[in-house]
Structures are given as C-alpha cells and as structure tokens.
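@channel anyone free to eyeball this complex?
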Amino acid sequence: MQEVLGSAGPQAAHIESLWWFTLAICAVVFIAILVAVGLAVMRRRVRAPTPPDLSVLTKKERGAEVAVVAALGVSLAGLIVLTLASFVTDRALASLGPPDLEIDVTGHQWWWDARYDDQDKQKIFTVANEIHIPVGKPVLLRLRADDVIHSFWVPNLSGKKDMIPGREATLTLQADKPGVYRGQCAEFCGAQHAKMALLFIADEKYEEWAAAQRKTAPEPATDQQKRGRDLFVNGRCAMCHAIQGTPASARRAPDLTHLMSRQTLAAGAVPNSIGHLAGWILDPTSIKPGANMPPNPMAPDDLHALLAYLGTLK
Amino acid sequence: MNPVLENTWRDPPGLLGALSAIDHKTIGKRYLVTAFAFFAGAGILAALMRLQLARPENTLIGPDLYNQLFTTHGTVMMFLFAVPVMQGMAIYLVPLMVGARSVAFPRMNAFAYWVYLFGGLFIFTCLALDFGPDAGWFSYVPLAGPQYTPGKRADVWAQMITFTELSGLLAAVVVIATVFKLRTPGMTLARLPLFVWAMLATAFMILFAMPSVMVASTALILDRLVSTHFFNPAEGGDALLWQHLFWFFGHPEVYFIFIPGLAFMSSIIPTFSRRPIFGYPAIVMSLTATAFLSFGLWVHHMFATHIPELGKSFFTAASMLIALPTAIQIFCWIATMWTGRLRLAVPMLYMLAFFFILVLGGLTGLMVASVPLDLQLHDTYFVVAHLHYVLIGGAVFPLFGAWHYWFPKITGRMMSERLGKWQFWLFFVGFNVTFYPMHHLGLRGMPRRVYTYTDEMGWGPLNLLATAGAVVIAVSMVLFVIDVVTSLRRGALAGDNPWGAGTLEWATASPPPSYNFDRQPIVRARDPLWEPPFGLVPEPTHIVGLAERTREALVTTVQDAIPDHRLVFPNPTPWPFVSAVAVSIMFLGSIFTPWAIVWGGIPVALFVTLWFWPKREETDQAIAIEKRP
Amino acid sequence: MRWLVLLALLAAGCEREQRQYQLPTVQASFVKQGHVTTEKNAYALSQGKTLFRWFNCSGCHSNGGGGMGPALMDDKWRYGNNPEDIYASIMEGRPNGMPSFKGRINEDQAWQLVAYVRSMSGWARKDAAPGRNDSLYPGDPENMRDKRN
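replying in thread with the prediction:
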C-alpha cells in the first residue's frame, strides 16, 4: 500500500519500468565485475612476499590494455543507454494530459491540508490527511508548505515532490486502479516526521464523496450532541479547528467537518475509532509527542458529549 | 639511528612537550586515534538507532532523542570521522612517501589538529547535555532556522562546521604544500605514488568545496543570532539557497572521502599482486577527473525540488559520467591482480570487499542519478543503503585494509592475521546483513529519518534483520579493538618492509624515527624500492650537505622536484595549542553572542602573534647556516 | 571545579533545550514554578510565540507594538509585568476589550504565552528567547531585546 514497485497509475508505472530496465543492466555489470575479480583472485596466488614482477615495466601488456579499453567502451555504452532511458522516462512523465481536478495541498507540522479547487467558488471544500480522487483522470496538485520543508510522496502513484515554504510546486498524477494508497512525508520535518502520513484514495464514487464533503456539518440531534457542539465551539477545540456550518473556523489544525468519513486520525498515526479519538483528545502527546495539539483533560461527561457530537460528523 | 638528527627533530618530552608536538607522525597518529574514537562514538549512536527501529512502535527512544542521534551520527561520521581520518592518514604518510623530513607548516598542522579535537569534543558534550543538533546532518532551513529550532541546537551544528572547516582547510594546505615543495629530488610528478596523487586531489577538493558550507553555516548562525534574512523567503531570502550551498560542498565531500579510499586501493593492490600497478597514467587522470566532475553533481540531491527539468537532465548526465573514472580505476586494479601473483593477506581481503560493496553502491548510485528513479528513491531507506554501501565500501573497508597495512609501519608490530580475518568476515557479513535489507525497505516505502513506524507497514522483519547485522558489526569492531591492543603489546616485530612494498615509506625503520630517514633518498622510479633494486644505482643516492643540528630541509620544484633552496623548519611550541584553545572559546562564545567575535578575537590575535614572534637564537642559527658554503 | 562547571552547564543546557512535549498540568498553587521552568525553556518560549500568532493576539496587540490593544514590548504594563499578572490577564481578561481565554486555551499554553509575552520586552533569557520568524517583520526579534522595566 506504500510501494515503489506496485504502480497503480501511469506515472509510477513509467518509473517502475525504468527501474526494472536499470536493475537488469546494473545486475549484469555487477556480476561481470565480480566474475572478473573472482577469476583474477583464483589465477595465481603466493603465500609470502615474492620479489615483484618487474618485467611488466618493459614489456607491453597488450592483452590487459585491450581488455581495459573494451570494458571502458562497454561501460560508456551502458551509461549512455541508462542516461537515455532516464531522459525518455522523464519525457513520458511530463506527458499526462490536462488535469480534471486541481487540489491545493499544504504541508504542516505534521499533517496535510487539501483544498479542492473549483471554478464555482461555492463548490470549493477542504479536507485533511485523506485525499480522494477520481479513477483514471489526471489530477493536478499544487504543493505548498506552511512552516518547514515537507515532501509529498505517494509511491504507488508518483514520485515525490518537495513542498518548500515561499514556493509553489505542482505534481500531476493519475490513478488507474481504484484503491487506498498510503503516502508519507519524505523530507525530514521535525519531531513527528515519522507520523505524517496521508491516504490517497482513488475512489470510484468520487462525485458522491465530493458532494458529501461539500455539505456543512449536520445539526446535532440529541441534547448530548448539542452539548458536545457547544463544548467544541466555545472551548479549546475551536481555537485551532474548523467545522463548516458552525462558528468554529480556525485554520491552524485539520478541518473536522467530516471527521468521521476518514479512516485515520492524527495524519495516519492511529485508526479512526471512538476509542482512539478519545485518547487523542485527552492526551495527544502519548500518541504523537511534539504534536501541536495540547492535552485536553476533561470530565467524563464532557468527553462523552464531545465524542457524541464528533461522531455525527460523517 | 642518528642521535644528532634525533635530537634536532624530536618532540620535547613531558606534558608541555605533548602540547607542543609538531612531528607530523605524532599529529597523524593523534588524528587517527581521535577519528577512530569519534567513529566508535557515532557508531554507538547508530547502534541505538538500530535498536529503536528493531521493531514497530518501539518506545525505547523518543522522537526528540532519536532526531539528535541521527543528526549527530551523520554529522560526526561525515565531518569528524571520514574527512579527518583521511587527512590524518595523509599527514602521517605523505611526507614518508615523498621522502621528506616533515610536513610543510608543521605548527599550523598541530593547530589544525587541536581545533579538530575541540570541535569534536564540543559536539559530543552538547549531545550529552541534551542539546545535540537535531535538524539532520544537512540542517535544511527553515527547519534549522530560528523559528523551527528554538534554543541553541542548530547553532551547535553550525559552529561545529566552523571548527571542522578551519581544521580541514588548514590540513589541506599542509598536504598541498608538502606534496608540491618537499618532495625528495627525483620524485617528479610522474613518479609520485598514487596515494600521494589521490591525497593531493582530495586536498584541492577540500580547498574549493569547504568554503561553500562555511558560507552557508555562517549565514545560518547569523539568521539565528542576529536576525539576518539569508533564508527568510518573506524578506527576499530563499530556503533553496541553503540546499545549493550545502550540496555544492556536500557532493564533493562524498568524493573527498571516497578518493582516499581509492588511494588505499592503489597502494595496497600492487603490493599484494607483486607487481607495479597497471595503468598509472590512466589512474592519475581518473583521480583528477573525479575531483573535477564531483563539483558538477550537487543538484542530484535536489531532484525533488522544482528546479527546471532541463537543468536536472544535465546533472543526471554528469552523475552518470562520474562513474567512468571510477570504472577505469576498477578495471586497472583488476588488470593488476589478473597479471600479478596475489597474496591474500588481511589488507588484501579488505581490498576485495571493495569490489563487492562499492560496486554495488556505485550501481545503486546510477539509479539515484536518474531523475525519475530518484523521485521515488530519494529520502527513503534505499538511499540509506546506497550511501552506506558507497561510503563504507568505498572508504571504510579500504581504511581498515590500510590500517592493517600500515599498522606495522606506524607501530613496528604486525597485527594478528587470524583475528584480522575473523574481524574482516564479521564486518563484511554484518555490513551486508545490516544494509542490504535497507534497499528493500526503501522500495517498500520506508522514508529516512523516521523514529518509528507502524506494524501494518510490514517493515518490521527487515528492520529486525538490519539490527541483527548491526550487532555483528559491533562484535567485529570489538575484535578490532582487541586486535589493535594485543598487537601493540605482543605483535610480531615488523621490520622495515614486512609486505615487500615498493614505496618510500617502507625504506625507513618501523616505527620511523622523528627525522623519518637517516639519509633522504633520491628517487629514480615510481616504486623506488623495487626498480632498480634499492641501493644498487650510481651515486648520488642520497641527499647530503644539509645541516643536522637545525631542522633544515631541501625544497624542490613543483613539477620535476629539482633542488631549489634550503629551508629551516620551526621548532616545537605550545602556541598552536594555546591559539586553538582561544579560537575554540571564540567559536563557542559566538553561539551565544555576536560580541564573542570581538572580545574573543583579542586573545586569538595575541597568541597568534606570540606564535610567530621570531626568536633571536633561531634567527642567528638560520643566518649562520646561510653563510657557510 | 571542572565538575562544577560541567554541572552548571548541564543544568543550564537542560533547562533551555528540553522539549517539554508533555508539561505536567500546572496546578494553581504551583503557578510560580510553572512559569520559572517555562521562561527558561527555548521550546516553551517558541511555542508561546507560535500560539501568539495562531490565536491572533496580534489582531489587537500587533506583534507587541500595540493597536487596538496595548503595546506589549514597551516598559508600561497596565496590570503589572510579573508572570502571575500576565497569566491573570490572559485567563480572566481585562476591561476594555481583553477577552478571557479561560476554557479556550490549555493552562500550559497560557504559561507558554506568558513567558513569550515577557520575552517581548526582554524578560526572558537571551539564549532561550525566540529568534526571528520566517515572515515580514521589521523590528528586532525577542532574542535581541534588552530588558525593560
């Protein structure tokens, strides 16, 4: 699910075929050199220092010269082939058609923010740490970083691209097979670099998913859920998080409007379940030490109310 | 043994004498011992990291400590082990190989060593005090910048760079001047041992590459301490600028660790093949070509940034091209072994390991040189495997071979063949068990510099295997230490030339006297001890007529080593040590306040002045010699 | 003697460099202690600076220069400049606009903010106070400010 050699789209497939080609050539070279060294070692051996063979200073070593020059010629040819193969693949990578969908992906310490762009401003929506895309269509990612350098990498779909503060990079990719592809930040970005993952989901029902994500959060139905929402909006949560359709609109942490539609919490650190969610809220540092989410000790009643409300954010 | 020369050239006795020592062999040995100590220290850090990664979700080491560990491991291995250990080898061996009595600028040489020692102690002390650097050995901004690394951790890194820069640049100057001006008559450039050629190339590379990282680390510390904006995009700075400056140094650095490895290969293979090397001119040209080309590859560390594609293609081609000079050397060595009669002593085993490990690392290097492949492999464990195959296979294995090879010269005693073989095989097997699985981990998506990973990623078994390999390496290192310690006490006496080698360092006693040669030989061939048989050539065979009661030496011309003039070398003095202390205090202080440069500069200026203050007695002596003939 | 120096270094280094990812939740009676460690700790000060930005304190205080709210980097402190007073200002609020953040921010975060606010007028150790941010800001950063009373 996070494999270089398990391509699920044209970009990764181009690179994968280049990999096998390069590997074949390199393997031949490696074996050839080992064989040559092995034969050289086995030819003539001595146990103690013998007088050096100085005859080589006066005679011409025609055989060895020819062999070295020939080996050099073969190496040069091999290198040229590898370089050309690399260039051809490079061109192939640039040939993906115009994108059907444009997403702004921003790296934060230590989570991913994704904003789905649209001509119609009403249809723009934001998700975090889980990006769905349609199957078989090119998607353009505009990559930025909010704090330090991160690197966007979903190996099954494409090579990586650095996200550098003050600059914008783009990456076009396409998923041909539906599935869940895991990605992970590839540039060291501080304490929790290890737990900065994202799920990239090639979704056959992309349009349905997008339509659901565009909706604002549902109104709480029960009293407990209402209490949970009040805790969220008037308490600590809303200082950093946003839920569309409520006054909570801060952008310092993942948008939680459809929290429960996601498979993981805390950028892939733990699976998304009520138990993990409770643990994450109470004591994030035990899951992700150094994360910017502070511990939130609270009374059991409050916690249950908050969880009940968050549970409605499907 | 010549008592007059001994009296003239030896280092003074006692503690003050130890601090005043300027004999290149003393300094060289100190470099080697210090560098191996740092190697052990950084190796222990690596072992801790391997323990943490041995199983998924391990809680042995938290992210904060882990980040300090891998940063310090990388920094120490690159800056405080790999480069200085090679420079130490050069400082010990180059004067012996070119038939000189001393290195050029012996006091500066001692100063460079002290600065290096203090820099190394400094970073380990900081790690012990919980402020070891934690932004990676590459210290990318903005992570290492003022906003994202609070406290002094990144400053420790930047200032450690300053220490090693200073030391490395000075040692490079020493090597270059020694090679160019102190060769014994007759040793033309065309007869220079390949070891010396390689060290010369390395020294020039250091001279041109290190200023780049010095600029970068100074800019970083200025950004952090006095709020300049070199790397602040909002004020017109640029985060990518750091990467260009760092890798413009960082890539050549890989090669100035690797080229000394080639130097060991080219010295040891002919000795154990019992013939002069095949293709001397081709190897010299290859070394020079590698030195030049290595400055044109730095962008291949930055393929994942948005540099224009055409520009990246150029660096792909250049990165592929640099494989050629190394290939030439490999073919020449194979030809040498093929046409010679091999003796498989321990040093030669390490040379053979090079062909396995380095060639594999070089081939994965071709993979990461290609832009599309690098986009997948960059910053994964594949690269961790690649770089350890290249650096350990290309530099550390040859270095251990070189250690076994020159140990008899340096100490006068042989190392144990039996323990040596055990250690070799444990190291070789342990190395491959540790690092080979990392190729697969990289392909299976494991990024570098992660302190843990979840079970479902499936990286657990291979990581456990790698950790097991690390244990084997640790055992082999323990054996190595045992071998060194017992050989020092009870090893067989070596004699002048135990391996029957052909270069000049084997012409003198083991260990060499402080003045290196009783009589400095005149050279008429590439392997003076082999061709023609040493001592059977027409006169003159040795330099005569130099004063023995002062440190007088013959300076020769750069190209043909024709006698040029006589030079009196300086005597031992503690001022280089004192100056190094003052410089270290200035560097340390400047982590906390810019005023340290101003106030700390005063004692430095004072001590350096005292260092160069001429003594009437020495001047008189020099004048007296001038008048004589 | 050497050991004493080393120990002193150790203490200073640890206090400054520790990454207190998990601050013990500060009890009211330990208020003083909470602030002492926080103010010497570079990570806590830096977190304070981040929160100052995230919670939009600059909306009124404008990077400490003052605007709708009072300036924080000068020597005039309406409600006192000792940590407890600043903590009270943040958590309880003050008349004429300063809202109460009680229940909206964590106590640890409040102490980090207190430490940072004091560093704005040079009250934190210079070797621990934050350097410049990667943003537009014309003035001296906190680690270059001298103490004002």
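from a first look: Confidence is low (pLDDT under 50) at residues 24-32 of chain C.
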